[in-house]
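hey
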């Protein structure tokens, strides 16, 4: 055990600001079975100073562990304590997969806008727009918005475009009928589409009439309509040019139509729309926008503490918080997965910081911790010519500009962050993995 490992282990038990050099050295060398005389000789400290520092250390550990701790028994007591914590955690571990449950302590709220979203739903005709790539927490936030709507007595309809056949997403009339049928099924209404669908008025107006003259009056209470993976229609320009303005028209109509005020929309997507739309017809410049960004240092510190690690956002290069920021770009899912894996190890870990660093060193290897997630992104890029050409430009010709579609396809996959029209690779480990495994 070196000095940093000793301090790392002590900091999981005692407040870090109570630690000084002599306490750490007494702890480290006592762990190796050395007496005060040897410790004084190896550290060049006065023997009485070493003994006094040790006495203070054992007293503080006794208080922290609620038992008598001495130089003779501290090591087996600590090993027993950590084994007990592994077997009986106050907070049961949850494997990171899908939406994090509403009551889970592992959900980290990231923006003030998230709190504002709960209030926004109460506004008549409101629209909340949630943007973020895969595994950034969109589903977890949505579950909280749905819970809020339920508590307010709303009807809730969840539309997921991942469940729609490609033939539906490429045909406006089929898409609007599919959405209308989904609404009826989830609010327990008889689907009377033929009573409102009129070929002469067109699919858009037929769907709107169906909604405001049949669905909303029948339920006579606020309806929360969530549309997940809205970006799946962006690739179908003809459908997007009609469907997206329709969502905007419902928002605009709510300003003067009391019936439409009962409709609240939550739109969930992974990238900005790259279909050319009149700014006055787009739903992406109205309502409350929430962009789910990576965790910052303070959020990662809070997350680590839930897993039982007292890691500070101190900016030190060896800090696991700094490592997660620099190596993983603060990616919520990857950071959760790494912390879960570390916390799942049984028994005493002398240096959680070192163990965490070693875990990340192997994470992108075949069968490593992140291999499944990285392989999926690799497959998606390989099958997407725009994403592939854009990534190749970023790696091989960084001065060459990317097309809009190249940027948005990479943003959708979570490979880049687009700021002021400029793409930037945001996850060093993922970028290196893709560079090593894609053919150039």
């Amino acid at each position: 055990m070196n000095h940093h490992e000793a301090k790392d282990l002590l900091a999981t038990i005692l407040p870090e600001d109570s630690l000084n050099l002599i306490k750490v050295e007494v702890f480290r060398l006592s762990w190796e079975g050395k007496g005060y005389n040897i410790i004084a000789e190896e550290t060049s400290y006065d023997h009485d100073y070493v003994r006094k520092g040790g006495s203070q250390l054992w007293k503080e550990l006794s208080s922290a562990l609620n038992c008598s701790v001495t130089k003779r028994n501290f090591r087996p007591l600590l090993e027993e304590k950590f084994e007990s914590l592994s077997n009986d955690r106050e907070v049961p571990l949850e494997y990171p997969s899908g939406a994090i449950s509403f009551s889970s302590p592992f959900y980290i709220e990231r923006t003030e806008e998230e709190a504002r979203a709960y209030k926004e739903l109460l506004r008549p005709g409101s629209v909340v727009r949630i943007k973020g790539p895969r595994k950034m927490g969109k589903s977890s936030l949505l579950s909280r918005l749905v819970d809020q709507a339920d508590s307010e007595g709303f009807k809730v309809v969840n539309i997921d475009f991942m469940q729609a056949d490609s033939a539906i997403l490429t045909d406006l009339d089929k898409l609007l009928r599919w959405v209308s049928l989904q609404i009826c099924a989830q609010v327990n209404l008889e689907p009377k589409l033929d009573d409102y669908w009129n070929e002469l008025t067109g699919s858009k107006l037929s769907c709107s009439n169906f909604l405001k003259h049949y669905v909303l009056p029948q339920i006579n209470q606020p309806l929360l309509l969530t549309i997940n993976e809205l970006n799946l229609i962006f690739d179908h320009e003809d459908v997007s040019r009609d469907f997206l303005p329709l969502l905007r028209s419902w928002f605009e109509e709510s300003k003067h139509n009391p019936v439409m005020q009962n409709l609240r929309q939550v739109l969930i997507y992974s990238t900005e729309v790259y279909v050319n739309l009149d700014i006055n017809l787009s739903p992406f410049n109205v309502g409350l926008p929430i962009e789910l960004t990576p965790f910052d240092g303070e959020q990662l510190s809070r997350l680590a503490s839930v897993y039982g690690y007292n890691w500070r956002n101190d900016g030190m290069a060896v800090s696991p918080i700094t490592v997660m920021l620099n190596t993983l770009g603060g990616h919520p899912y990857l950071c959760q997965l790494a912390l879960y894996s570390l916390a799942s190890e049984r028994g005493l870990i002398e240096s959680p910081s070192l163990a965490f660093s070693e875990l990340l060193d192997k994470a992108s290897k075949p069968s490593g911790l992140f291999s499944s997630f990285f392989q999926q992104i690799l497959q998606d890029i390989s099958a997407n010519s725009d994403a592939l050409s854009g990534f190749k430009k970023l790696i091989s010709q960084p001065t060459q500009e990317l097309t809009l579609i190249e940027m948005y396809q990479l943003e959708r996959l979570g490979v880049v962050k687009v700021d002021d029209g400029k793409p930037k690779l945001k996850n060093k480990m993922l970028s290196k993995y893709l560079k090593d495994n894609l053919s150039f």
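Residues 329 and 427 are 5 Å apart (CA to CA). The radius of gyration is 28 Å.
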